[in-house]
Structure formats: C-alpha cells, structure tokens
Amino acid sequence: MAFLDNSGDIILDAVLTETGRRKMAAGTFKITKFALGDDEINYALYDLNHPSGSAYADLEILQTPILEATTQVGMQYSLTSMTDNALLYIPEILLNEKLDAAVKRKNNTIYIAMNSETQKILDNATLGFGSGYSVLAGQRGASRMITIESGLNNADIAMTQANQNTYLTSKNLLDTSQTITFDNNFISYPMVSPKTTKFANNADGSWGGTTTPLQSLTNISPAAREGFSTARGAMSRAAIFTRDGATIDATDLVQSLGPVGSMSYMNVAVDPALTTTMTQTASTKWTKFGSTGITITGVSATKTFSTIDISLDITANNSGAALSIPITLIKRDT
C-alpha cells in the first residue's frame, strides 16, 4: 500500500486485476460497478477554529495523502449512497468480542481451525492463546463463533429501545439480513444463526440471550469478483439496552456505544481437503496460497502450522453498512 502525491489534481487512478487485463485484451472489459472509500481520512482534523479562519477548516483533510489504487480488497470504510438526506446517524457493523460466545481476534485476525487437533493447541492456556481465540470450521453449535452487530457507534445516543426505534427502525436502518462475500477457493459456504436467535440482556443487565445451531447458507451466488461467492443470511433484532438500576452495563455486552439494531453469529464450512490432520497428506493449496511450517506469535515455538489469510466481507442489506473481517485458516503441522 502506498500514497499518491495529491499536491495537484488527481482525475483518476486505477489499476486492473489479472482478470481485468485479460478481459481488456479480449475486448470484453466493461465497468459495471465501483466502490469508493475514505479509509485514509481523519475527520477529527476538521477545525472550525482554524487560525486562518473557518474557510480553512478542512485544509488538513484536503492535504491528507490519498491511498493509491490497489487490486487487493480491504476497504474498511466504504461510502454509501443514502436516499434520506435528513439522516443524522448511520449504522456501522462491528465485530463483537465481548459476548461469551464471541471469538476474539488474536494477532489482528480471527483464527479458523481446520480440525480439532489444531484448535486444541490454540485453546491451550500453556501452549497456545488460551480459550476464546479460535473457531472450529464447520461447527454449528460452536462454543465460540464470529459475532457481528449493526448499530450506532455513538455515545451521544443512549442505548435505549426508544432510540433504537427512532434512529433505526423508523428509518428502515434496522438490518434484518446480511450478504456475506467469501473466497470459494477455500470456503464452501458460510453458516449463520437463525432469525429466532435471541440477543438480549436481563433487567439487571446480565446476558439473557440464546445460542442456537447455525444454519448452512448453501444457496450461494457468484460475486462480482472472480473466485468469490455470496450468500444471504438472517440477522436478529437485538434487545440489549441500558436498564434502570442494572448492575451490568450494556456496553459490557456489545462494542457499539449507542443503540444496537441487530446481531448475528456465524462460522464457515471449508473445503474438506484443507481439514487434514498431521498424519495425512496436506492439500497443495497451503503451499500455493499460504504459508507452511511456520510458528504463530503467542503459540509455543515447538508447534508449527500452515495458514492461509483471507477475509469475510459482510454487507448489511438495509443500512448498507459493511465490514471486512480478516480471518486466518490454520492447520497444525507438527
């Protein structure tokens, strides 16, 4: 990743993937959609009290170096078109790492264990990370799952049911479903919690939700990117609110600082060829697309692994909020 010199005007900076170049050579290249983002912009630099006057309030932002185009998909803050110009707040999708059932990131990624012998080492308190930092691929009733929430990450809006109705439900921003985009070279299909899954807290603020077996999303469609597929899954309306007199704060359960609209658990089923154990012949995908025989930071150096780094891209179908979740497929070698 690099930055462009934006001291002058930039009309367009674009790069083509290998697929794009092939289509251009064949005369079939056509742009049908594009995405914009502002990952590099820090809006806190907007300064109405600029020494040179309010006309220069956005000067620091305008002088921010712009990320150059890349063929790698990793946009964190994509721009969304909204038809309601009166909206005050727009939901975000956040990775929840606070619920007991939520897997936590380690080394800035979520580890998806290909088999139980791999997860056993990762979960070992002495040799590995300890419990809570890995998901076993394909497990429907996992003790740990990827957990997401869609809500208003703004502490100025109280986490109440009234505000959930005012700022989300009434604005058609309460997300009831999600589209998951995944690399079909490694992932067979995603799995998500059914709509009936309960995400709620009790009167004292404690967790009052449920975990139900995940449903396989086998009705998949081709994505806009070659080698990727999409599947649509449910999201459940959340009832996690600030409770009067509660001994446990709602923010102990969710990442959002304001009202949460909906939540979901998920996992993935992977290509069976990737799930081999130490005594079995491993798929060549590990050497072709990943790394083999490596040690992992936070895990005993006497254990080696094969890894492939990919992502799950989530788009909420009502609000348009998006999140790219970095995941690492991991298999124990020794």
Structure characterization notes:
- This protein is mainly beta and 334 residues long.
- It has two domains: 3-67, no CATH class; 92-332, no CATH class.
- It has five helices and 17 strands.
- Strands 4, 5, 7, 11, 12, 15, 16 and 17 form an eight-stranded mixed beta sheet that branches. Strands 3, 6, 8, 9, 10, 13 and 14 form a seven-stranded mixed beta sheet that branches. It has a two-stranded antiparallel ribbon with strand order 1-2.
- Strand 4, helix 3 and strand 5 (134-136) form a beta-alpha-beta unit.
- The longest helix has 9 residues, at 18-26.
- The chain starts with a strand and ends with a strand.
- 34% of the residues are buried.
Number of helices: 5
Which parts are unreliable, with pLDDT below 50 for 5 consecutive residues or more? none
Number of strands: 17
**N-to-C series of helices and strands:** EHHEEEHEEHEEEEEEEEHEEE
| N-to-C span | 34 Å
Give the overall average pLDDT.
90
**Structure class:** mainly beta
Using only CA atoms, what is the Rg? 22 Å
Overall geometry comes to: globular
Structural domain count: 2
Percentage of residues assigned to helices: 10-25%
Per DSSP, what share of the residues sits in E-state strands of 2 or more residues?
Answer: 25-35%
Most strands sheet: 8 strands, mixed
